[in-house]
């Protein structure tokens, strides 16, 4: 809320970003090991987001969005120090209702996800697509 690039969006342009999960990379020596993180239940997640319209140098309008992050919960702290803010379904209206919920109240949702919500699976970068793929045990 302190950064000028996000303060107006936090007051008036909050959104939810749906996702099945997300990737995070753990630093290991000189390299990084990717992990796929998802809800243990397999249900979709909703990340706290902010959107904004910017005017580019040539006068063109650009719609942009950012996912809000916070410190990692205990489940992910060993992998990375930050994680997306996961908004629980019962708080969707509180996050989205910019007309009736002020930025300070909405900011109370910016916290790590419950420790029992997520699971992380080590993935491989091997394969023809170059994208991480699940390692099966």
Count of folded domains: 1
Largest sheet: 4 strands, antiparallel
- Write the CATH architecture name: Alpha-Beta Complex
Work out the radius of gyration: 17 Å
Instruction: Give the fraction of residues assigned to helices.
Output: 10-25%
Mean pLDDT: 90
In CATH's first tier, which class applies? Alpha Beta
Shape annotation: globular
Distance between the termini: 43 Å
Order of strands, main sheet, comes to 2-3-8-9
The helix/strand order is: HEEEEEEEHHEE
Number of helical stretches of at least 4 residues? 3
Q: For this structure, what is the CATH homologous superfamily?
A: SOS response associated peptidase-like
* Total DSSP E strands: 9
Low-confidence stretches: none
* CATH level 3 topology: hypothetical protein yedk fold
Q: Which structural traits does this protein have?
A:
137 residues; 9 strands; mainly beta; hypothetical protein yedk fold
Could you walk me through the main structural features you see in this protein, from its secondary elements to its overall organization?
- The chain has 3 helices and 9 strands; from the N terminus they run αβββββββααββ.
- It is mostly beta strands.
- The protein has a single domain, classed as SOS response associated peptidase-like (hypothetical protein yedk fold, Alpha-Beta Complex).
- It has a 4-stranded antiparallel β-sheet with strand order 2-3-8-9, with no helix packed on it.
Kindly summarize this structure in a few lines.
This protein is mainly β and 137 residues long.
List the helices and strands and how they pair.
Layout: H1 4-12, E1 14-19, E2 21-28, E3 31-39, E4 45-55, E5 61-67, E6 69-71, E7 82-84, H2 92-96, H3 103-107, E8 118-124, E9 133-134
